[in-house]
Structures are given as structure tokens and as C-alpha cells.
Amino acid sequence: MSSASLHFGPFRLDPPNRRLWRGDAAVELNARYLDVLILLVEAQGDLVTKDRFMDEVWRGIPVTDEALTQAIRSLRRALGDDAARPVYIETVPKYGYRFAASLDGEVQDDALPAPSVPLARRGFIRTVLAGTAGAGLAGVGIGLVYGFLGAAGQPSAGGGGALSLLLVLMLVTVFAAAVAGLGIAAGIAAARLIRPQAWYWSLAGGALGGLLLGGFGHVIGADAFRLLVGGDLDHFAGAGEGVVIGAATGLAAARAARGFAPLALGAWLGLIGGVAVSLADGRMMAGSFQALGAAFPASSIGGVFGESGLGPAGLAVTGGIEGAAFVAAMVWGLRRFDRSD
């Protein structure tokens, strides 16, 4: 490790004291990400392979390549770098990374080819769109399942009632999931801008986004159902449910970036969150549809569980399945499309 400070652009890297400075302002990085940066900078343009990162930074701790990808993404965000036009960190596909800048005296901020604010804004928008897309995909799947289950109970003569039920469940479920996903993803994206390495900020951001948009979705979703079928919902998922599922999504997204299997972790935390919502007398989408008994007398989703309507067992099972599907789909969206490396 170098015993002197290393200067590049407006930054000063101080390996002995484990600090990164931009001018007179300290740049916060967690210890592992700082190790990645030190290794890159001290290589002075040489390729640093993935295996070398694993050996010298993670020191044999079993993690996936996603952990390194997230470290590079966070470093680029901290440096104001862009993977498409790298100034500091260049990707060598399938092999690793190299430090692209020269080590020299300090350079003024206006010498940088691209400011960090537009990059941060672009990352925020990409995260929101990716999370919303994943949530919408979960809504499509959940809506189809409940739609077909409900439609199966409609009279076979004249399929208008069954088709109407299928369409209503699809529209309401996709809308509610997308709105919730938008809020949760926006909260996670905002947390990444403030503290990109802190998992608890991601959790808090997801919970806050779920709270705000969950309340909005409750009002709009219930109104949409009333408009479509002319009946009121007894209890439509809202702010409380949004907090729990948002927190689960934020935690899953943050921890998945640290080497955990993204889909499995998302599904597990979503399952726990969905069951917790049901046990606390909250409602996921299936529980929200208990008013279907009035709007579509022949429908019976709860009959699958041997209950009249949805009882405790039905609510717990459907809540857990919905939570697992929703959180896993959102994490998939964030990991699949929110990539800058």
C-alpha cells in the first residue's frame, strides 16, 4: 500500500489514513469499497482482475460478482464517473477493471468532462423506472392468477361476468402494484443518492416510499374498483402495507448487492413481509378483494383454502405469496435494468 497521498482529478486518496477527499470535503465510502478504490488506483492503469479483487479485498469471503459490481457502481457514483464514458474507472468486460486517470497534481472540478449531478439524476430515474417495471410485472402475474381463480366461479353461460371479473382484477392489481412500486423505488433511489452504501437507508427509503404511495394507491385503487364494478371495498391495501413491503424491498435490494442471491432473498423477505401484514390484520391484494362477494356473487378465491371468503389461513397464504412475488420482481427489476457497469 502506498505511503503517500494519490491525486487524480479533484480527488486526493490517502491510503495510510484510509480517506478520500474532494478538495477539502471528505467523500464517505465504506471500508470494502475504499479497498477496491485503493487497489485500482495503486495499479496505475494495469488491469485488476476479478480474482484479484476477491483475493485482496474480500480475502476469501464467498461472495458473487454482484458484490464487486455494486462496489464499482458506488465508486462511480461517488466520483461522478460514467461507465459509458469513463474518466476514472474503465470496465474490461469479463476480466475486471482498470483505473483510467493519471495520477498527478490536483485538478479543478471544472476540468471534469461531465458533472456528477446529471449522472445522479439519471441514476435516480433509472432506478425508479426499473423498480416500477418489476412491480408492474408482479402485478400482471398476481392479477392473472386471481382473475382466473375468481372467473372460474362465474357462471359458464355467458362469459361476460367471468371476463369482467378477470379484467377488473387485472386492472386494479397492475395499477396498485405499479403505484406501490413507483413509491418504493423512488424511496430507494433517494436513499442511494444520500447514502449509497448504507443498507438501513435503503430500508428506510423503501418504507417511506411505500408509506406515501401506498396511501395514495389506497385512495385511487379503491376509487377505481368502485368505478369499475359499482361496489366498495371493505379494506383496500394502503399505507401500512406499503411500509412493510417497502422496507422488505429496500432491505432485499441493499443486501442483494452485497453478495446475497437477489431473487431468493427478495422472495424470502417478501414472504415474511406479506405474512406479517396478514397477521397484523392488514390486507394484500387478495384480502382487498373480499368485496368481490357482493360484486360477483359466484366468485370465491377463498374457497381454494376451504374457507368461506378469505379467512386467516387464506389471508396468510395469499399475503405471503404476493409479498414474495412483489419483492422478488422489484429486486429483479432493479438488478436487471439498474446497471451502469
Largest sheet: 4 strands, antiparallel
Bulk shape: elongated
Distance between the termini: 26 Å
Structural class: alpha+beta
Order of helices and strands: EEEEHEHHEEHHHHHHHH
Strand order of the largest sheet: 1-2-3-4
- pLDDT averaged over residues: 75
Kindly state the number of beta strands. Answer: 7
Please explain how this structure is put together:
About 8% of the residues have low confidence. It is elongated, with a radius of gyration of 24 Å. Helix 5 crosses helix 7, helix 7 runs antiparallel to helix 8 and helix 7 crosses helix 11. The chain is built from eleven helices and seven strands. The strands form two sheets. It has a four-stranded antiparallel β-sheet, with helices on one face. By secondary structure, the chain is of the alpha+beta class. The two termini are 26 Å apart.
Question: What's a quick, concise take on this entry?
Answer:
Helices cover 61% and strands 7% of the residues. It has 11 helices and 7 strands.
